[in-house]
Structure formats: structure tokens, C-alpha cells
Amino acid sequence: MTALQLRLRSALALVTGAGSGIGRAVSVRLAREGAAVAACDIDGAAARKTVQLLGQPQSEEGEPPRTHAAFQADVSEAGAVRHLLEQVQACFSRPPSVVVSCAGITRDEFLLHMSEDDWDKVLAVNLKGTFLVTQAAAQALVSSGCHGSIINISSIVGKVGNLGQTNYAASKAGVVGLTQTAAKELARHGIRCNSVLPGFITTPMTQKVPQKVLDKVTQIIPMGHLGDTEDVADVVAFLASEDSGYITGASVEVTGGLFM
């Protein structure tokens, strides 16, 4: 990718859930597009491993060299999220102009047997965590007068449901509603908010699914195969860049045609 193609050369991107799966792929792609990346994960060692994969970000001519950085935070804790944004701004001397909420967990069980604790944990990370990061990042951008792009990772499951995932489906449906409302409220501040709805993507999360289930899923995907994390990262990079400058409040499905 040549310098002319580095769409995010002046961007600072905060990615949560950056230690693995979609979050790691997004971090790699945004760095390749020229962004400086603040990679955050509840597993600090995993975030540091991601940063090791990123290389050095491109600097504008005349600018001092920039670098990437790893951060550890539990996005379900308001104080931890506030501290994260403070750390990022202290490290890079500005708020992140691109924010991607990838942090998410599953605690699967059928509705008839799901515990309240498993419901609460999934909603706390997937929905409350996305709210806290979106709010804190938006507050930092508005107070500094900067424009930005906030991208929240939902799931096609949030649109169509899935057996054994009432908690996950509810959390991801909530992410879409949160993002659409944030888009309406923040547009006047020059902040765009969009969500991405992956289908079945090859990640550590889907690797826990029995192979026979994955085989059945693959049979009903029109494109005939599971997606790669890079497929999601490509869409995130587009939404992060000015190539999508007139897009906000959108929900982009990355599913290989599943449930269309």
C-alpha cells in the first residue's frame, strides 16, 4: 500500500478487544492504513502481542515519529473506561479520532436454563461496555472540538437471533440501537457512528462451536464458507476513513449473504 493509499495516516485509533479475533485483525488493518493504534484488551499481554504485530505507523513529513501502544482495561467498568481514555490522551496528546468497540464475550445457554449471572455478564461487556467506550470517546472528541468515527461491532445474531444466545443476541441488538441513536446525537459535532454486523467469522469464539454445527452453518451461507476476521476489518477501515464521510447510523452486514 503506497503512501497515497494510507487513508488513516493522521488518525489515532482506539480498538477494544484488540487482543484476539476481530479486534486484532482490525488493529492490524488500521495500522496498515497508517493509523497509530491504541490496542486495548482486558488481557494486557494479548494487547501487547497485538502491538508487536503492527510495526511503526507512518508519520507525516516533518512530524516526529509515532508509535502504537497497548492498554489494559475492563470495558464493563465505568472508572476503567474513563481511565483508559485519560491514558490514551496522555500517551498520544489527543483523543482517538477512530474508536472501534470489538470487546465481547459469550455465555451460551438456552433461555429455559440461562442464569441471571450469565445474562448480566454478557450485557455488561457487550452492551454496557460499548456504551461506556462510545460515551467516553465522544465526550473527549466534543471537548477537544475534534471530528471522529465510532464503529461498534454488533452481530447478525442481534438482528435474527440464535439458539442458546438470548443474552448475546439482546446485547448485540442493543449495540445497533445505541449506535443509531448516538449517530443522530453526535452528527452535529462531526462524529459519525456506525455498526458492523459480522456473521459466522473464524475467530477464537467460533472455534468453540462444534464442527458439525459449523458444517451445517456453512451449508446455508450463500457464499459457501465462513468469513475471515480480515473481511470485517476491511469494512471497519472503510467506515473509519473519509471514504465513508457521508455515512452515519448505518449497520453493515458482513455475513457472506447469510440471513439476507
From TrEMBL:
Top-level class of the enzyme under EC nomenclature: oxidoreductase
**Cellular-component GO terms for this entry:** mitochondrial matrix
A Gene Ontology biological process term:
fatty acid biosynthetic process
Ketoreductase domain location, by residue?
11-204
Keyword 4Fe-4S present in the record's keywords: the answer is no
Is Zinc-finger given among the entry's keywords?
Answer: no
Q: What is its EC number?
A: 1.1.1.239, 1.1.1.62, 1.1.1.n12
* Coiled coil ranges: none
InterPro entries given in the database record = KR_dom, NAD(P)-bd_dom_sf, Sc_DH/Rdtase_CS, SDR_fam
**In which compartments does the protein localize?**
Mitochondrion matrix
Q: Which domain of life is it from?
A: Eukaryota
The family annotation for this protein states:
Belongs to the short-chain dehydrogenases/reductases (SDR) family.
Q: How does it assemble?
A: Heterotetramer with CBR4; contains two molecules of HSD17B8 and CBR4.
Q: What is this protein called?
A: (3R)-3-hydroxyacyl-CoA dehydrogenase
